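Lab notebook: predicted structure, single chain.

Context: the supervisor wants predicted structures on file for every construct in the current expression panel, including those that have not yet been purified. This is the next one on the list. No modifications to the sequence; it matches the entry in the shared construct table.
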Amino acid sequence: MKWVLYFVAFGTVIYFLYDRGLLVTKHITAVLFTMWVGKSEDNVSLNSCTGWVRHRVRFRGSGMYTFTMDHRLSKGDVTVSLLDSDKRELLRLDRELCTGSAELSRRSRYYLRWDIRSATGTCALCWRSDSMD
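Prediction complete. Output recorded below exactly as produced.
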């Protein structure tokens, strides 16, 4: 019976960390993959990487947010999608479209999904609020 309590406590801690955006779900095949998640930016370093990464992101205020993606890839491709709480795509950034905007609410849940296809190099995604309520 004691192991059930440990299991429930462990599950609660995992959910709490994921809900706060501190845990990342991923499916990656790579020689090297590192990701730094910040309050207003994500940085990724890749070497022969293919797969996807998704994490919850919190926005401090409601309003229009501008997202800018900086690709420094020697090969492959990386696409970043902003998803709402129902996992519907609100914004998609890639090599052709490096900047985009979306109207966001601080009370809603949002996710960033990185899709990586045989990529080597670094990428950075930054966002900033154009207006606050």
